Amino acid sequence: MKFKKTDSSRRTFIKGSATAAFACNYVPSHVFGANSRVNVAGIGVGGKGSSDVMGADKYGAKIVALCDVDTNRGSRLIEYFTESDGRVKVYKDFRKMLEEMDKDIDAVTVSTPDHLHAPASLLAMQMGKHCYTQKPLTWSVHEARLMKEISEQKGVVTQMGNQAHAGEPIRRAVELIRAGIIGDVTEAHVMTNRPIWPQGMKKFPEKVEIPKHLDWDLWLGPAPKNDYGKGILPFNWRGWWDYGTGALGDMACHIMDMAYWALELGAPISVEAESGGNTEVSPPKWSVVTYQFPGRCDKPPVTLKWYDGRDGDDPKVPAKELWEGVELYRKDKKGKFSGSSRYGSILVGTKGNLYFNRSNTNFVVKHKDGTVTTGEKGYIDFVNEGFKAPKQKLARTKDEDFEWINAIRNGGKLPLSNFSQSGPFSETVLLGNVAIRTGEKIEWDAKALKAKGCPAADQFIRRTYRKGWELPV
Q1: Do 95 and 470 form a contact (C-beta atoms < 8 A)?
Q2: What are the extents of the domains in the chain?
Q3: Contact 386/371 with Cβ under 8 angstroms?
Q4: Could you give the CA distance from residue 143 to residue 127 in angstroms, rounded to a whole number?
Q5: Which residues contact 271 (CB under 8 A, 6 or more apart)?
């Protein structure tokens, strides 16, 4: 990733998409003037963290501090802001940064590996800092609950980084489904081609020398004290239970989002999983997770199935009969499902099925009579048993970075993917990992955060923290 030292590069570094509606009102404790800048610190600034920091900068935030345990990973961003805005302060330990710069920081971006999301975000919010945290919101179900509760107690502006939530395809799909384009939805099938990193390992890699540019102890944070092993960093940590949440945690907050949001699903009543290759230290090579949701008001119960990975050479995808007659999703010359058929959603309703990919608005509806309708200029606009596509109802905005910074500066409505929304959603997603790790069907008591009759689940719902890294709540 290259950083050009020009104002133009700031405007073009991050390409935003049309974004989300807002929910909940927020009154800022500190009123920013029209020309004042929000002071932002970045926690985890290599990889995705660099674009999260640049996204805040793009909309007028002042980057005052950058924190990363790996001096190589954050070096380019540090160099860019040093030469652009004068010297930013640089840290390895976010706890020290927040303590020393408490009065100088208004907000933080948190783009660390999954296991550090909650410790960094909760500490920042407890200190009154606004918080943007990458998906999955947390490593554990309990942490997701805390993120919601503390954000509401402190009255801060929050947002989970599931970018598609702010885009036109998902927003329009929500409007169409709620308007009844396929009637009452009873099933949702959501799939991904992940993992694209190793999973299913039986033991940690052999110990190797820790690179001089990495503070391994700080990187471990609340996780158990393990030796540094080749291949864990910078990307493959997702395939280790101590640090990551596997394919489900990586992608479900993106692609399960449309169905969860459109159908207003809330907490499931049960979750069970099939998987292959799951071990004590590593997520499975493939999984199929089944969530059961109760009826909501006048809407019927919903079965939502998640599919990831491959069982041998075969990708895990929904039953083949769901795909028949849908030309948008083709098989390759060998009769296997193409990549597009392994990344997206199928919603099954009383009037037909909707096929959705978050990357475009070329929605496909297969009606009960077998006919297929596709979008016109990005929208479906047709008459089907009295249905007419609704007018736009959900607000749009520039992109998720604007949404967050603008809410901090001006108050008004919170970003829709704030922790009051994304916290419960993340709980649901992460319950799938609880079912995978226990190998049991989880009968879920959402209020108590308990898997009924399954004490083995407790350790995966609430994690044990390494001494000195207990949560600040």
Answers
A1: no
A2: 7-165
A3: no
A4: 17
A5: 289, 290, 291, 292, 431, 432, 434, 435, 441, 442, 444
Estimate the crossing angle of helix 419-438 against helix 246-255, to 10 degrees. Answer: 150
CATH architecture of 7-165: 3-Layer(aba) Sandwich (3.40)
Half-sphere exposure of 166 (CA within 13 A, CB side): 23
Q: Name 238's Cβ contacts closer than 8 Å, sequence gap at least 6.
A: 113, 114, 195, 197, 244, 245, 246, 247, 249, 250
**pLDDT tens for each residue of 6-59:** 443 333 333 332 233 334 666 666 667 656 789 999 999 998 999 999 999 999
Amino acid letter, residue 175: E
pLDDT per residue as tens digits for the range 189-201? 999 989 999 999 9
- Asked whether the bond before 300 is cis by omega within 30 degrees of 0, the reply is no
Q: In one letter, which amino acid is 281? A: V
- Residues with Cβ < 8 Å from 357, sequence gap 6 or more? 169, 340, 343, 344, 345
Tokens of 378: 């990005």
Place of tokens 């996780």: 223
Tokens describing residue 241: 């239970």
Euclidean distance between CA atoms 328 and 440, whole angstroms: 37
Type and span of the H or E element at 255 = helix 246-255
Q: Report the first-to-last Cα separation within the chain, whole angstroms.
A: 37
Q: Which two tokens stand for residue 463?
A: 């994690």
Distance CA 136, CA 291 (A): 18
Question: 129-149 burial, b if ≥16 CB within 10 A, otherwise e?
Answer: bbbbbbbbbbbbbbbbbbbbb
Which tokens sit at 260? 């969860």
